[in-house]
Write a structure and sequence with these properties.
By secondary structure, the protein is of the alpha/beta class. Helix content is 41%, strand content 19%. The protein has two domains: 224 residues, Aldehyde Dehydrogenase, Chain A, domain 1 (3-Layer(aba) Sandwich), CATH 3.40.605; 188 residues, Aldehyde Dehydrogenase, Chain A, domain 2. The structure holds nicotinamide-adenine-dinucleotide (NAD).
Length: 456
């Protein structure tokens, strides 16, 4: 079936109304969960093949997150779907007002390769919950996971409801030409712009989950040992390519050496003396990505790590010091196990440095001082983040995740996922028991009454 025939089928199916009812949505979410349960080991194996993800990371950060999301949605969907009553102003006497969430229609989800399962299925849960049909386009750079997801979807759903289109740029571009009602894209800023341009032709609603350089600030009063462990976890675990990983460190000059010593300790405790031989240490997704990262290792001075293996496409957890903003490693998102370190003397300096650049997707601050935490949260705009931790905000069904400015548009997870795949239809229901004549042109005192009811 061609992509445009698939589109036609989904549109027709959507217009039958089959996807709209609560029972249908709940049963499809349960079916999805069961299908994942049955293929858990195949998914884990595929994540190992594509990214050398260990079982713990594959479960905790891909499969487990999707289960959590499905369970949460099933529990709350009935309430979210209910029309929400709101007040009516005095000028609208006699009426009742409410907001009805309605599905948008046919949704397209384009996923990246770094969490190839979770970043495809998490938005899928939101799209089903909101009553849409879905076409899913996995990343061609994680072919094993793409194949497992295709098998799972084909065996569980009719293509008129949910289908997978595998492929790369060409397939993606063809999909972007179709009259979808919603596009949910996770990927790079550059491709995000292409997606938005394509969506603008039909004014299709988009959610863009993009990337960027996410800073991690370590203040002089931070609990340095814990900070080092949590930073090493955020930067080097999960196959070392996480969109919300700390991209670079901004460390108070007075604690830099101590922090680096703790970082070395943390890396060693996670991966031993030879991380490249650790069985669960991630690999870079492709040779092209590996080469790009390898070049960064010549910048500044290697403080920790520095080894790479061009046969396995692995790079050790590497920390670089003597880094300046004009170096290439500070000009683009790193997206790999290389952590440049810059120092600062005052929090004002930190604010100025970060605000001079595009708004980050995530920001992390390690400090025991609430004032320092508050100043950074208030004065810097970023997608989301943690105080005294890294990454963990992403895995909560209660916290919407998304970027701002160049790091993205729109947030999802939990109820927000339901909302971004829905249209909130506003309805005013007027009584016919009486009328309010002051609004009519014939009303003599109309203006006077309106002025009184809306006076400043
Ligand atoms: P990418 O933008 O290269 O690819 C993402 C998807 O877009 C893939 O499915 C790909 O096939 C498709 N695509 C690629 N080029 C295209 C084009 N020219 N036209 C249409 N479609 C195209 O991103 P990636 O390399 O897969 O992922 C890495 C990026 O994603 C990083 O920037 C990372 O920060 C970001 N990311 C963001 C989040 C988030 O939640 N905000 C999560 C993961 C990754």
């Amino acid at each position: 079936m061609s992509i445009s025939q698939l589109m036609d089928q989904q549109k027709k199916y959507y217009h039958t109304g089959a996807t709209r009812g609560l029972d249908f949505r709940l049963s499809q979410l349960k079916k999805l969960k069961q299908a994942i349960v049955e293929r858990e080991s195949a998914i884990i194996q595929a994540l190992r093949t594509d990214l050398n993800k260990g079982e713990k990371e594959a479960y905790a950060f891909e499969i487990g997150i999707v289960y959590q999301e499905i369970t949460h949605v099933i529990k709350h969907l009935k309430r979210w779907m209910k029309p929400k009553k709101v007040k009516s102003p005095m000028t609208h006497s006699g009426s009742r007002s409410y907001i009805i969430p309605e599905p948008l229609g046919a949704a397209l989800i384009i996923a990246p390769w770094n969490y190839p399962f979770m970043l495809a299925f998490d938005p899928l849960v939101g799209a089903i919950a909101a009553g849409n049909t879905v076409v899913l386009k996995p990343s061609e750079l994680a072919p094993a996971v793409s194949a497992v997801m295709t098998t799972l979807i084909c065996a569980t759903f009719e293509p008129q409801f949910i289908a997978v289109v595998e492929g790369g740029v060409e397939e993606s571009r063809t999909l972007l030409e179709q009259p979808f009602d919603k596009i949910f894209f996770t990927g790079s800023v550059a491709v995000g712009k292409i997606v938005m341009e394509a969506a603008s032709k039909r004014l299709t609603r988009v959610t863009l989950e993009l990337g960027g350089k996410s800073p991690c600030i370590v203040h002089q009063d931070a609990h340095l040992k814990l900070a080092a462990q949590r930073i090493a976890f955020g930067k080097f675990s999960n196959a070392i390519q996480t969109c919300v990983a700390p991209d670079y460190l901004l460390v108070h000059r007075s604690v830099k050496d101590e922090l680096l010593a703790y970082l070395q300790e943390a890396i060693q405790s996670f991966y031993g003396d030879k991380p490249l031989q650790s069985p669960d240490y991630g690999k870079i997704i492709s040779r092209r990505h590996y080469e790009r990262l390898h070049h960064f290792m010549n910048e500044g001075k290697v403080a920790i790590g520095g080894l790479a293996d061009d046969r396995t496409l692995q790079i050790e957890p590497t920390v670089l010091e003597q880094i300046t903003w004009d170096m290439p490693v500070m000009q683009e998102e790193i997206f790999g196990p290389i952590l440049p370190v810059l120092t600062y003397d005052s929090i004002d300096e930190v604010v100025t440095m970060i605000n001079a650049r595009p708004k980050p997707l995530a920001l992390y601050v390690f400090s025991e001082d609430k004032k320092v935490q508050d100043v950074l949260l208030e004065r810097i705009s970023f997608g989301g983040g943690c105080i005294n931790d890294t990454l963990m905000h992403f895995g909560s069904t209660h916290l919407p995740v998304g970027g701002v400015g160049e790091s993205g548009m729109g947030s999802y997870h939990g109820e927000m996922s339901f909302q971004i795949f829905s249209h909130m239809k506003s309805i005013l229901k007027q009584t016919t028991k009486f009328d309010i004549p002051f609004r009519y042109p014939s009303s003599k005192f109309g203006l006077k009454i309106i002025r009184r009811l809306t006076k400043p």
